[in-house]
Amino acid sequence: MKKNLTGSTVSPKPGIGLNLVLILVFLFFLIPMFSAFLFSIQVGDGTYSIFAYTRMLQDPGLASSLWLSTRLAIMTIAIVLFLMVPTVTWLHIRAQKAKRLVEFITLLPLIIPPVVTALGILNSMPNFLLNSPYLLGFVYGVLTMPYTYRALDTGLNSIDVKTLVDASRGLGASWRQVLSTIIAPNIKSSIFGAIFLAVALVLGEFVVASLLLWSTLPSWMAIVGQADAEGAVAVSVLSLIFVWLLLMVMSLLDRKKKLQIKLGGI
Amino acid sequence: MRISRRSGLLVSGIATALAASVMLAPVQAADSSTATSLADFGGLAGLEAKCKAEGQLNVIALPRDWANYGEVIDTFLRKYPGVNVDSQNPEGSSAQELAAVRQLKGSNRAPDVVDVGLAYAISGAAEGLFAPYKVATWEDIPTGAKEKNGLWFMDYGGVIAIGYDAKRVKVAPKSIKDLANPIYKNQVALNGNPTAANAALHGVIAASVAAAGADKGVKDISNGVNLIKSWKKAGTFLPVQASSATVANGQTPITLDWDYLQGKYAKSSTKVQWKKVVPSDAVIGGYYVQAINKTAPNPACARLWMEYLYSDQGQNLWLAGGARPIRLDAMQKKGTANKKYVADLPKLPAGAKVIFPTFDQQTKAKADLAKLWGKLN
Amino acid sequence: MTESNQLPNKVAATKSGGNNVMGLEFNSNKVFFDYSGLIPFFIFALIFILVPTISVVFFAFKGNFGEWTLENLRVALREEYLSSLIGSLRLGFFSAITGAFFGFFTAYAVSISGRKKLQRVVSTASGVFANTGGVPLAFFFIAAVGNYGLVTVNLNKIGIDIYSGSFTLFGFSGLVLVYLYFQIPLMVIVTYPAIEGLKNEWREAAVNLGASKFIFWKYIGVPLLVPAITGAFLLLFANAFAAYATANVLTSGTLPLLPVQIGSLVNGNVIADQTNVGMAMGLEMIIVVSIAMAGYIYLDRRTSKWRKK
Question: CA-to-CA distance for B110 and A127, rounded, in angstroms?
Fold first, then answer.
């Protein structure tokens, strides 16, 4: 609590109006989740059952779409680790002048709506790529760029890269040693943050997957929802729980939380 | 010298490999995708063997509770246990089926066969998406119900009916114009988006005929759109795709859909008391159409599926689902139609004249709808 | 909860001159070598974002037979497709206004409450909710305020029918409501640093100099916050404008919206006259979002300038 010169506190506290807003917002976020949970366990005549969940868990579509989404998530993680991390590190060490350009490029996926990217991919990619789900993996690598880049960039900004590199190189370390034993541990939390964002995005991405006719978890959920509302709600609840677990794991591994956001509705 | 000998060996090696691959190549594949009838397979047994070798069939947009497709698929699986059936996007629309054919061309995920509305079948054929094939029972299909070379052929049909949950809907609607009654608030739904789904398209045509009479209604779909707009104003129209799920959970207590689909809504839950009525002011009929994907990844199984669907067994399974199979007349003459299911078919209102919108009328309606439907809100 | 840089970990710095690695200087090759490490990244970005985007812009101007034409744009701006553009602009605007309003006051309330625990919870929650994907979100709201959602049913029991007015989950009002779920957290995250940056010292100084609350806000608070809020508004606008998943699940083509319209064109509604109208609509989207995002980036740069310590 800040004190002014005479020693009394001056910073205002939220009045009734603001407190009301807080409570309203709090309720607004809680009610849909709670309703979804109840909806998925209600049978309609007042009894409860987890039938919707067991039904969904037995659905082969869930397994195959989850497996596809998982593979794509792993692929995106690989892109983060083996493309983004080296690139951003290189940028900080060697090519600071290119920062502006690279930053702009990483903002492109935000400026170009994903639906347009999907349209363009359908237009321009050869058939053999379109028929492979791994095309999605590459697209996801691009779609996650704004967030992964920012996370890694912020992390690298907070350590004096040049000095570390010069010192370690001066002491005879090879580039690989520098990257793996000096740089990486220092930006571990940023790397985890980047990975979390990437996975969250991949598991929730809908536009590109559905327009390219792939059954990832979200696009399968949308199809299921047309015929089975309770089942779709059940899977939605499960996916939210999963994201929370992921988040909890991430924050446990990372004390200095620098959470970033992903633009919703993708 | 050395080089030329090596290259000579190389050439002859390649030639041998090529020859071998041509000889060992599944000749069936080339044959299957251009086969136009059972004769090309040497009979049903030959076709069954080729399909067994392929082992896979991709179908699309076939909800299990649509005209009893669930049992149709299951019976096929039982009959041919070596074949795996992948039923994709069950609630998909006709438009989505064609899009999948186009987009997935060359992939082994592409649909082998499609079951689409007439307008889509004709445009798909014009686009060159289909392969010609005449099933064994070809002669039983009426002339107007098939493309002369076998690019497409009608399969089953019905009329547009109003279905409603008697438990939630206290006043039974009898005509389409009734649906503007505000007591049906937030209750009336179509089966999908009429710019993409055949059932919904015919629903809007029915509305159009109800509003403007048989002649003008079919020619000018804006009558139907305006009627539905009035439903929106009265608050009765729900822009939600009706399905067994939405009926079961009460989201769509009234549906404007094919009469044979009303049966699936009836079965969707023990809590609904589903009734159906053919509207007094518009009797719109329509048949769906089958076609084989020209670039089907499993051409033999695609054709075996067709032979199965058009056999007495297949046609009776559709009949069991409340739909009129296209060979019904022929089967009744031969006595192979299941009499119980025939008796269960919905009765048409006395003196009603069933209107079957022609291809041209449907195409125009679709084009107009593309412009008008977005303005509904 | 700030995205600004942390204090650098100062390691004993060895003085080294410029890009002097291992004592070797690569003069003419240096520039190339310096950038060469970025080549994989550039190739990646080129193939998977630049090429698709350029192809959309390219085909927006190509007619049915491959000729250059403005016909696609003309059709896209024709009444029936124009309604999609207008619909999306409206949705973007109202979603941004409501999200900005609630988000700002939430952020403000949390900031001045000073309660660390609350701030941590809100920070974490914002991260989670802003990341809630469009599809599950739609189903949450169907479960809550759909025709037979729990809220709807329970309010009916006490006599309130939320569908008696013009509200419907499956239309415009529903989308604005649902979008709040990720717009509010986004607003909180983006404006919180600016609010925090409104240092207490300034407030105290103003009070000590005799300024009233109103004067403080008029000359200090508002001018400093307005760029941040405006920038955030633009970001929220672009976000709602471009959103696809939730709109698709809830309205599936019955509400004219640009992204959904493009989606249904891809999904198989063949337009008889122009086949590349979808591309023209894609171009429209690029233009609108670029303008909004450019505004946001500019304003964000301005606000962060004075915020850096």
Answer: 13
Q: Helix C134-145 and helix A229-253: axis angle, to 10°?
A: 120
> For B329-343, what is each residue's pLDDT tens digit?
899 999 999 899 888
HEC letters along chain A: CCECCCCCECCCCCCHHHHHHHHHHHHHHHHHHHHHHHHHHECCCCCECCHHHHHHHHCHHHHHHHHHHHHHHHHHHHHHHHHHHHHHHHHHHCCHHHHHHHHHHHHHHHHCCHHHHHHHHHHHCCHHHHCCCHHHHHHHHHHCHHHHHHHHHHHHHCECHHHHHHHHHHCCCCHHHHHHHHHHHHCHHHHHHHHHHHHHHHHHCCHHHHHCCCCCHHHHHHHHHHHCHHHHHHHHHHHHHHHHHHHHHHHHHCCCCCCCCCCCCC
pLDDT mean over A76-94: 88
Same domain, B24 and B165: no
Helix (H/G/I), strand (E/B), else coil: B324: strand
Give yes or no: residues C56 and C91 share one domain: no
Whether residues A227 and B244 touch (CB distance < 8 A) is answered with yes
Q: What is the pLDDT of residues B165-199, one digit of tens each?
A: 998 888 999 899 999 888 888 889 998 878 878 89
Report CB contact under 8 Å: B96, C268: yes
Burial annotation A36-46 (CB, 10 A radius, 16+ → b, else e)? bbbbbbbeeee
* Partner residue opposite B91 with nearest CB, options A44, A122, A227: A227
- What count of CB pairs under 8 Å joins A to B? 43
Shortest CA gap A175–chain B (Å) = 43
How does pLDDT run along chain C (309 residues), one tens digit per residue? Answer: 333 333 333 333 333 334 445 544 445 566 677 778 889 999 999 999 999 999 999 999 988 787 888 888 888 888 778 888 999 999 999 999 999 999 999 998 888 887 888 888 888 788 778 777 788 999 999 889 987 788 988 898 898 888 777 788 888 999 999 999 999 999 998 888 888 877 677 778 888 888 787 888 888 888 888 888 999 999 999 999 999 999 988 887 778 899 988 887 887 654 545 678 889 999 999 999 999 999 998 888 887 776 654
Q: CA–CA separation, C257 vs B176, rounded Å?
A: 29
Do C51 and C87 fall into the same domain? Answer: no
Whole-angstrom distance, CA of residue A165 vs CA of residue A143: 30
Q: Which residues of C touch B371 (CB under 8 A)?
A: 79-80
Is residue C184 domain-shared with residue C41, that is, in the same domain? Answer: no
The answer for A 165-204 residues in CB contact with C (under 8 A) is: 166-167, 169-170, 186, 197, 200-201, 203-204
In a shared domain, residues B218 and B277? yes
- Domain range holding B370? 159-285+350-375
Per the structure, the complete domain to which residue C82 belongs is given by 75-308
Q: Measuring CA to CA, how many Å separate B68 from each of A59, A79, B65, B319, C173?
A: 20, 46, 5, 8, 38
User: Residue C20: is it exposed, middle or buried by C-beta count within 10 angstroms (0-12/13-18/19+)?
Assistant: exposed
**Beta pairing, strands B56-60 & B84-88:** parallel
CA A46 to chain C, closest CA, distance in angstroms equals 12
Q: List Cα–Cα distances, B142 to B151, B328, B358, C26, in angstroms.
A: 15, 10, 16, 83
Could you tell me if B32 and B166 lie in one domain?
no
